[in-house]
């Protein structure tokens, strides 16, 4: 699973608003301590009975509250097979279903079975026998269905239960989390067809335990079942579910019944179905069907988005030594999805934004869309083929999927691209770690949804990378092969992963798994060095709070450069304060700690300007170049530094060029003309659109300088990202010459440019653009509505005469109150908040919106944004 847009936003807001004001750098003692301490309660005592005073414990601001223990679900009954026969009532948003479950006691004899079934109308429950079905008695509390069997059954006996029911997901309480914004399981999108710009669709989302909102099951990850789903739908719709389409029959009433069957067992939360007017684009891998389900208007670009899937399947099959094991592989993009993507076995679901791109937009695609695709595919080994037995062990699913993004980038695009993935992922974890730090494997949490965080994903992926570096590539992938082959189609916990690595390597790796998987936090290091008498003294201090985090054992490589010769030294840090002596014939030009960039840590490394310049010019990786660029930004006025930045504008890796272009914003040094000339060259000719766009943005930072001709040329660029950057630059420095170009662009602009155009007109538009804003609003993606369009519209509205604002305010209020997407409601709320500063009457409206919002995540965000 990948985060939804709102989920990622919620995590960011929690980190920035939820953390104490002083928590700016996690490796500073003042930043990691809360303002209060915990003490034992004082009691009066006579001098003869007094004990030693209790030492105060300073509690870090990131320490989460104590939560209840969450053991793995006890297995009383195994669900072996599920057969569903379902049809849909679009107007009532209900599913009419019959479930035939094949069950068996797990070990102990049973005379009843307890199923999860949320918010159903139960019509009847029958035991299916060879001669005649038996009616069974049951108890039902709208959450659990307790069925009384006709006798005791032993673990060697299977039995079948048939349940007729109606699922009513819209009548369930609205709940969700940062990663999965709703948990009602079954979703009807535009069911009455009243939204003209949105198709009618039905889709499901099962993780964590929401599939029991639409079929009865034991909704736990340590169950495994085969399945068959018969869907009766109107003839014009396509269907999709797990496994293969084994039959499709036209019915006399104009409907059609499709039967999908998955013969390999998977956890109940991985079951899915989807219905809608989809175009199906076909591909193949080793004779297995690979298909992409998209809205018809995206049929021509589907392969540009998903087309690397067969290559990914081949790469992982060979790398793991386990061929893709499932019957087929389909990927479907749906509207209003409640998460970023979901790894349903053989039928992955994505939010619509992954395909909502024109050919011009695809030129700008960075690794984000591809990383989501590879993430969900890798789950078909880690998560689907082998499944974590409990939500406490979720990193056994998500950490591997996160690390697959690194593996694919490394394979397809090289080491620098992989390092960029690593850098972004580590940054996201460290950002979250400012406000909370949990063990990766957590047996205590308030809700299983809490497990879907930057720890389970980003931290876990970086831990796997360190494990790979610790044991070596051959042992790493051999261990993964052993883990997968030994535990295929079963549920596992952390010890089984550790044992697989120990069996292959012959090493005791408890120390690694304990400190990285079972302890909270991460190393916070200060690294300094000095030179004297032919020895480098390298001092490493672990500054993390050792009351709540371990003192880490850190095998690491330090590289020294003497006479332009690099020497690698392997050291093992084991103490809070440790000094290592490294030989050197003369003072080194550079001493680089963790030169491989593998460590998950917050590192403060003391390097001089000369050392950083040397590091850039002798860098072995993107990470070393990027670090030099970032750390030398404050010293741009120095000629050596500005010369390094100009050199970086010609680097072979685009992200280095982009970092340099961004670093040169507002440059005020003596090489001003040369820098501006270089940025203009990059803006016009760099082969990567992200770099051209960064150069344009940097040019726009130079106040009172005219680069209008550069921006005008950029308006004709082949990349929408570059055109958008030019529009944003012209918004701050409009030119008469570009106005005609922009007005022409406005009439034919695709959805991806509407945000930049809205920003331009927010600062430079007039009453004549009012109807343009209202007319194009329906074409803007939900994500872009939140990111820019609605906020720009609010700023534009403040420039309009008050008498002209009513329609716009009504539209924003309607979006804030009733739009189906949470991020759009949030964006509209923020837009109204912007206007409230000049229109105090809107404060009452905002208060009413807050009061009536049912989504708990949005309520929290509204509070944070007040």
What is the CA–CA distance across the termini? Answer: 31 Å
Structural class per helix/strand content? alpha+beta
Largest sheet: 8 strands, mixed
Second rung of CATH, namely the architecture of the largest domain:
Sandwich
Percent of sequence in beta strands: 15-25%
Mean pLDDT comes to: 92
Q: Count every helix, treating DSSP H or I runs of 4 or more residues as helices.
A: 28
* Oligomeric state of the chains in view: single chain
Q: Write the CATH fold name of the largest domain.
A: Immunoglobulin-like
Beta strands, count: 31
The domain tally reads: 5
Question: Helical content, roughly?
Answer: 25-40%
Radius of gyration: 29 Å
- The best one-word shape is globular
- The low-pLDDT segments are 11-49
Sheet with the most strands: spatial strand order: 7-6-10-4-3-13-16-15
CATH class of the largest domain: Mainly Beta
Fourth-level CATH superfamily of the largest domain? tricorn interacting facor f3 domain
Q: What can you tell me about this protein's structure?
A:
This protein has 866 residues and is α+β, with helices and mostly antiparallel strands. The chain has 5 domains: 20-60, no CATH class; 77-378, Sandwich (Immunoglobulin-like), CATH 2.60.40.1730; 386-518, Neutral Protease Domain 2 (Neutral Protease, domain 2); 524-599, Immunoglobulin-like (Sandwich), CATH 2.60.40; 749-866. An 8-stranded mixed beta sheet has the order 7-6-10-4-3-13-16-15, with no helix packed on it. Strands 18-19-20-22-21 form a 5-stranded mixed beta sheet. The protein has a 4-stranded antiparallel beta sheet with strand order 11-12-17-14, with no helix packed on it. The longest helix is centred in the middle third of the chain and has 19 residues, at 395-413. The model is unreliable at 11-49 (pLDDT under 50). Its cofactor is Zn(2+).
């Amino acid at each position: 699973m990948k985060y939804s847009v709102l989920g990622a936003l919620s995590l960011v807001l929690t980190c920035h608003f939820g953390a104490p004001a002083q928590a700016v750098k996690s490796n500073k003692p003042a930043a990691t301590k809360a303002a209060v301490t915990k003490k034992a309660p004082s009691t009066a005592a006579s001098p003869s009975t007094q004990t030693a005073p209790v030492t105060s414990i300073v509690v870090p601001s990131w320490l989460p509250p104590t939560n209840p223990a969450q053991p793995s679900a006890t297995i009383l009954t195994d669900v072996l097979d599920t057969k569903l026969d379902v049809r849909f009532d679009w107007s009532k948003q209900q599913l009419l279903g019959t479930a035939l479950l094949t069950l068996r006691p797990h070990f102990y004899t049973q005379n009843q079975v307890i199923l999860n079934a949320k918010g159903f109308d139960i019509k009847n429950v029958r035991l299916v026998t060879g001669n005649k079905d038996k009616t069974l008695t049951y108890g039902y509390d709208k959450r659990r269905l307790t069925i009384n069997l006709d006798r005791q059954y032993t673990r060697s006996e299977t039995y079948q239960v048939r349940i007729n029911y109606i699922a009513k997901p819209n009548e369930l309480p609205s709940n969700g989390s940062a990663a999965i914004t709703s948990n009602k399981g079954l979703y009807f999108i535009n069911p009455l067809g009243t939204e003209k710009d949105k198709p009618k669709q039905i889709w499901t989302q099962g993780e964590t335990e929401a599939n029991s909102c639409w079929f009865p099951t034991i909704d736990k990850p340590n169950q495994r079942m085969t399945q068959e789903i018969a869907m009766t739908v109107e003839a014009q719709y396509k269907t999709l579910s797990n496994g293969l389409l084994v039959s499709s029959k036209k019915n006399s009433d104009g409907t059609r019944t499709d039967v999908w069957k998955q013969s390999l067992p998977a956890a109940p939360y991985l079951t899915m179905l989807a219905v809608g007017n989809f175009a199906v684009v076909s591909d193949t891998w080793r004779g297995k069907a690979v298909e992409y389900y998209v809205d018809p208007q995206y049929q021509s670009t589907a392969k540009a988005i998903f087309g690397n899937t067969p290559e990914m399947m081949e790469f992982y099959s060979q790398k793991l030594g386990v061929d893709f094991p499932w019957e087929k592989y389909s990927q479907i993009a749906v509207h209003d999805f409640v998460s970023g993507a979901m790894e349903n076995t053989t039928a992955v679901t994505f939010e619509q934004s992954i395909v909502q791109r024109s050919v011009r937009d695809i030129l700008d695609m960075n690794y984000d869309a591809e990383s989501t695709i590879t993430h969900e595919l890798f789950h078909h080994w880690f998560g689907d083929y082998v499944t974590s037995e409990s939500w406490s062990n979720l990193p056994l699913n998500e950490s591997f999927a996160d690390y697959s993004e690194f593996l694919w980038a490394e394979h397809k695009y090289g080491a620098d691209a992989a390092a960029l993935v690593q850098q972004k992922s580590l940054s996201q974890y460290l950002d979250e770690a400012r406000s909370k730090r949990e063990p990766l494997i957590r047996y205590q949490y308030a809700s299983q949804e809490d497990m879907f965080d930057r720890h389970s994903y980003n931290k876990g992926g970086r831990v796997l990378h360190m494990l790979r570096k610790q044991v070596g590539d051959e042992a790493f992938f051999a261990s993964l092969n052993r883990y997968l082959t030994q535990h295929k189609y079963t549920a596992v916990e952390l010890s089984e992963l550790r044992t697989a690595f120990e069996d292959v390597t012959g090493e005791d790796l408890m120390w690694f798994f304990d400190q990285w998987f079972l302890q909270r936090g991460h190393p916070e290091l200060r690294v300094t060095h000095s030179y004297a008498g032919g020895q480098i003294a390298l001092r490493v201090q672990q500054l993390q709070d050792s009351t709540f985090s371990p003192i880490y054992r850190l095998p690491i490589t330090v590289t020294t450069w003497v006479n332009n010769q690099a020497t690698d030294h392997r050291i093992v840090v084991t103490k809070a304060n440790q000094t290592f002596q490294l030989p050197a014939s003369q003072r080194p030009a550079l001493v680089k700690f963790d030169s491989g960039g593998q460590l998950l840590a917050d590192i403060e490394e003391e390097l001089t300007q000369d050392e950083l310049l040397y590091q850039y010019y002798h860098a072995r990786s993107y990470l070393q170049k990027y670090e030099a660029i970032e750390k030398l930004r404050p010293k741009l006025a120095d000629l050596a530094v500005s010369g390094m930045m100009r050199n970086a504008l010609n680097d072979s890796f685009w992200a280095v060029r982009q970092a340099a272009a961004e670093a040169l914003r507002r440059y005020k040094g003596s090489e001003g003309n040369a820098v501006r000339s270089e940025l203009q060259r990059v803006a016009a000719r760099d082969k990567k659109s992200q770099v051209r766009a960064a150069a344009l943005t940097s040019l726009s930072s130079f106040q009172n300088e005219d680069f209008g001709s550069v921006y005008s040329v950029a308006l004709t660029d082949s990349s929408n990202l570059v055109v958008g950057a030019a529009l944003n630059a012209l918004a701050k420095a409009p030119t008469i010459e570009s106005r005609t170009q922009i007005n022409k662009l406005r009439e034919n602009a695709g959805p991806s440019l509407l945000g930049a155009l809205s920003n331009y007109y927010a600062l430079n538009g007039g009453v004549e653009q009012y109807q343009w804003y209202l007319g194009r609003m329906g074409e803007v993606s939900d994500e872009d509505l939140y990111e820019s369009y609605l906020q720009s519209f609010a700023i534009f509205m403040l420039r309009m005469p008050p008498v002209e604002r009513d329609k716009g305010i009504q539209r924003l209020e309607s979006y804030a109150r009733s739009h189906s997407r949470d991020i759009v409601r949030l964006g509209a709320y923020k837009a109204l908040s912007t206007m409230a500063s000049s229109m105090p009457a809107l404060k009452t409206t905002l208060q009413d919106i807050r009061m009536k919002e049912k989504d708990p995540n949005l309520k929290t965000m509204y509070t944070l944004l007040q």
